[in-house]
Write a structure and sequence with these properties.
Blueprint lengths: L6 E2 L3 E3 L9 E3 L24 E2 L1 E11 L6 E10 L4 E2 L6 H27 L7 H26 L5 H21 L1
Parallel strand pairs: 1-5, 2-5
Antiparallel strand pairs: 3-6, 4-7, 5-6
Helix pairs in contact: 1-2, 1-3
């Protein structure tokens, strides 16, 4: 079964910023996933799944205007390589493309959050409000990831997989133009 279950590894709001760590992969349009990015091992409960990428959204303060105190945020999709895994029988381009779409979906939600936060006035950007928005975006992203897996049967429904690939490609194109 080519099923991929999304595991949101946690909620991150870092005011110091996130440097790329050894076990994290920050989303980049120039770099697609490779099987080398899947360093984890499946758990016994994963016996029906062939691969899984573990992603979340990281939010950090990019800069603060000295005069106005207005913060600019940077939101990025992050994959955890040590928690992402693939079984040997599923190491093929089709399964990797399915996993890449999970990462692309995380990117869409991260960039949409960033655009929203940076368009708010200063009073709407209080730390608690920002954290609540981040948590809501992660919750919505997780639901959308689950819908993707459900509608594609974890990638097994080739026709629906092609439809989702086209939709996500279009959405990524739109969001990247807005940046």
């Amino acid at each position: 079964m080519r099923s991929c279950l999304l595991v949101v590894f946690g909620l991150f709001l870092s005011l110091r910023g996130l440097g790329q760590q050894r076990d994290t992969l920050i989303y980049s349009m120039e770099r697609k996933l490779t099987w080398a990015d899947f360093k984890g091992k499946p758990k016994p409960a994963d016996r029906h799944n062939g691969a899984q990428i573990t992603v979340t959204i990281n939010l950090q303060v990019k800069k603060v205007n000295f005069w106005t105190g207005k913060a600019r945020y940077d939101a990025v999709a992050v994959a955890f390589t040590d928690a992402s895994w693939v079984k040997a029988a599923y190491k093929e381009a089709y399964t990797l493309a399915h996993e890449q779409l999970h990462f692309d979906i995380a990117h869409l939600y991260a960039e949409t959050l960033e655009l929203e936060l940076n368009s708010l006035d200063r009073t709407a950007r209080q730390k608690e409000q920002v954290e609540n928005r981040l948590q809501q975006y992660i919750k919505d992203m997780t639901a959308y990831q689950e819908l993707y897996d459900q509608e594609t049967s974890g990638g097994n429904n080739i026709a629906r997989q092609k439809e989702w690939a086209a939709k996500i490609k279009k959405d990524v194109s739109i969001i990247n133009k807005a940046l």
